[in-house]
Amino acid sequence: MLRNYLTIAWRNLVRNKTFSVINLLGLALGMASSLLIGLWVQDELSIGTHYPKAAQLYRVMEHEMADGHIVTDEDTPGILADELKKQFPEVIYAAASSGWEEHVLTVKDKVERQTGRTVGADWLRMYGIPLVVGPPATALTAPNGIAISRKLAHVYFGTPQQAIGKSIRLDNHTDYQVTAVFENLPSNAPEQYDFLLNWSAYLKHEPWLNDWSNAGPGTRLQLRPDADPDKVSAKLKTFLKGRNKDIGPSFNIELFLQPETEAYLYSNFKDGQRDGGRIDYVRLFIIVASFLLLIASINFMNLATARSIKRAREVGVRKVVGAERSALIGQFMGEALLLTALALVLAVALVTVVLPTFNQLTGKQLNLPLAQPSFWAVLLVLLLIMGSLAGSYPAFFLSSLNPVRVLKGGLRFGAGAQLFRRGLVVFQFGLSMLMIIGTLVIYRQLQYIQTKNLGYDRQNLIQLSSNNSALGAKYGTLKERLLKMPGIKSVTFSQTSPLGNGNTTEGVSWIGKDPTHTISFHNSAIGYDFVETMGLSLRGGRDFSPAFGSDSTNYLINEAAAKRIGYKDPIGKPLTFWNKPGTIVGVLKDYHFNSLHVAIRPMVLRLQKTNHYGQILVRTQPGQTKQALASLEQLSRQLDPNTPFTYLFVDAAYQQVYKSETIVETLASVFAGLAIFIACLGLFGLATFTAEQRTKEIGVRKVLGASVQSIIGLLSTDFLRLVFIAIVISSPLGWYTMHRWLENFAYKVSIEWWVFVVAGLLAVVIALLTISFQSIKAALMNPVKSLRSE
């Protein structure tokens, strides 16, 4: 019996090649897209969960409340980790950590920039990072010790064993001995680095880290398995009170714990409350994958229904000779499962071909886990779900047909069946419209980001890091000589990058300031010619100038700061920064020194005549970038021959800030296109079905004189009505969804009415192109042939 069913199923697939190919292609594309999205989602969800004790790991976070705002970040005092380990019995391990930094590592003639960080001694044990060589308890305790990855050990020393005890020069001035070699971090580790330095030694060289009033490093904890993280968070809440002497009466810092497993996905906070992050994109693409699978399944239903008249007589004969309904359901479900299985094989093949391009687009290293039984279990579940979903309606519908009516030629579909099929088409195009609207809005927001006037000119602006290099100490010579070289227009330096300024302080005061009210200001040290090099505009006053010797105690502020300070005319008014009285000499027009996700906040800029740590900014002459880079490289190698020359273009780096949004826009465009394509396959099936149902009607109309155009319009109007209904239903849903997404940006586009018009017209045009083939074919059919068909 089973063999007979399989034979019949295979013959039906072969006999109806067009429908089989359309079904196969729709299901394969839907499942391939979902598999790709599934691999991406699995990777996103796995980030930060691979640590052996992941469930016990936490980051200490800060809520900083000042001036009516709550800012949340993981900047904490540098001595917090050691203190928490002493004060909290729930803490097993605690470690401070710097952010990742690039340093120049030199071993003999090998000089390369590598990424590392400075961490507490508990770091390796806390995160369970396996060591190839060396004891974890002492790997990070030696003041001049350095732990390196297996990769670096092979690069510099050949083997991990040969690396132990060997010397590595850091930034051309400090020698470290290799105390341990740890395994290369997996690709799903949220933080990537290749070496680790000792935190205690770092504290001695950076005295500001020992002050409770300063924050910057991160603090990580591992709690006991029986510890209650909520109770620990409650105890942490007021931990800094009484320790930070600079906190004003109205200012408060509250500490709390965030699980390490949530830090990557839930990184956004708004007014002290968790407000999503990468998890929003994970949820978005889970929904997209579900949409694609639903659309593909609906296609199968519509196309199977379109063929139902041809299969009806078969059902009638089988019922007359004694076939039970359950057997017929099993047969049709078996056919659906067979076709789904073939589509699944094709989908896996498509994923294998497309995966390298997908990895390049998303910046991941995804692979099909063919060796894992769980992957095959997922495929089996997908096969059963898709096969059952796609085949359920045709199976139950066809098996319910009355054999007497079918064999007498009286098969007609009631209003309920027609309404169901049309509802499926509306649902398909509604989902497709949602994806089109989303794609258009995301594209417009990205265009807005890329073309928005940031308040400074990011074109022809080059940034060089002077961190951990000789260029900072020789900045005066560098600037003087650069200005004489071809292609260079101006040079300055800044303590922070134009792309992101996380430095904040509450140590700003002025005449008339409420002493009980503490306000947070962004701040940065800058050099001469900063305004010119950045391409900023002055609202009033002047830039710092060597002609004014007092500028070392003067300040520049932005419009947001001027508004917050409240001086009617701030130029020449007093301002105190970190207990250093000075004068406001210039007010800058507001410019974006952080992401467009956040609003422009008050900024204070101070003059620093020497540069040992920060960013060197070089403005090139338009059209002379090549000459400027040659000048930069030549002089850089002369002044700092032991450091590799590296640079970045600020405009290109700016695009990288929004890499996640760019990836989402590209993926949304691709999957929206696939959704439309698959939906059109379903519309084609319904057009075929309708043409078959109305064959005699069309013949009669042609005999009575109806034109080809009128018949095409008759058939097309029914389908376009469904598309218009889908547009009306999906437009408000699309507006609401994208309005919520745009709330993540402080500066954003508005959702204009024409977005829905464009999306609707696109859907209508695509639908017309899809149904025109069947409509024209039916309209051109010979009426004699149509009327004698039965």
UniProtKB/TrEMBL annotation:
InterPro entries: ABC3_permease_C, MacB_PCD, Macrolide_Exporter_MacB. Its main location: membrane. It is a multi-pass membrane protein. Residues 286-402, 670-783 form the ABC3 transporter permease C-terminal domain. Residues 20-238, 435-632 form the MacB-like periplasmic core domain. It is found in: Cell membrane. Keywords: Cell membrane, Membrane, Transmembrane, Transmembrane helix. One of its GO terms (molecular function) is transmembrane transporter activity. The chain crosses the membrane at residues 21-41, 281-303, 336-355, 375-398, 419-443, 667-690, 711-733, 753-773. One of its GO terms (cellular component) is plasma membrane. PANTHER family: ABC-TYPE MACROLIDE FAMILY EXPORT SYSTEM PERMEASE COMPONENT 2, MEMBRANE COMPONENT OF TRANSPORTER-RELATED. This is ABC transporter permease. The lineage of its organism: Bacteria, Pseudomonadati, Bacteroidota, Cytophagia, Cytophagales.
